[in-house]
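can u do me a favor
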């Protein structure tokens, strides 16, 4: 089965969004721990919804795959980057100010909120693709109705 370059753009876009999300994940975690929790979650939600909006311009199956790739890459790679950089970030922040460590309960709340942000990305995917399909069906029904009316009142009944 031959794929054109246009059909495989969803993979390229999901990789780009996933790598940007992975790079943003340590920043979001450290903002959540040390700056402002609501800002960090709002930033994560905006990023997930925006990426999902970008990735759902394709057919439903491709959009769903793109959002799934984005989730796996940004979540998995972001977690890996956070684990690798966390000790360096803590030492840097402790040199310049106070670092606030999160308890296990606070970390689990953060993870739950991030998971909810990724679920919001899937909701955007389903809603946008569903609305697009509904509009196509309505346009098709309108065209069928128009052709039925034109045929009903045509001159063929003489």
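np, heres the sequence
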């Amino acid at each position: 089965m031959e794929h054109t370059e246009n059909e495989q753009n969803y993979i390229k876009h999901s990789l780009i969004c996933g790598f940007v999300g992975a790079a943003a994940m340590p920043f979001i975690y450290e903002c959540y721990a040390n700056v402002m929790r609501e800002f960090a979650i709002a930033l994560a939600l905006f990023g997930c919804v925006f990426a999902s909006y970008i990735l759902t311009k394709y057919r439903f199956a491709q959009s769903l795959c793109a959002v799934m790739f984005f989730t796996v890459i940004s979540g998995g790679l972001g977690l890996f980057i956070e684990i690798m950089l966390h000790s360096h970030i803590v030492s840097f922040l402790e040199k310049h100010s106070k670092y606030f460590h999160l308890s296990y309960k606070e970390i689990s709340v953060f993870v739950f909120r991030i998971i909810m942000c990724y679920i919001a990305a899937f909701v955007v995917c389903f809603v946008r693709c569903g609305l697009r399909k509904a509009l196509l069906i309505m346009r098709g029904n309108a065209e069928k109705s128009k052709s039925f009316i034109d045929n009903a009142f045509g001159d063929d009944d003489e």
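The CA atoms of residues 67 and 90 lie 32 Å apart. hope that helps!!
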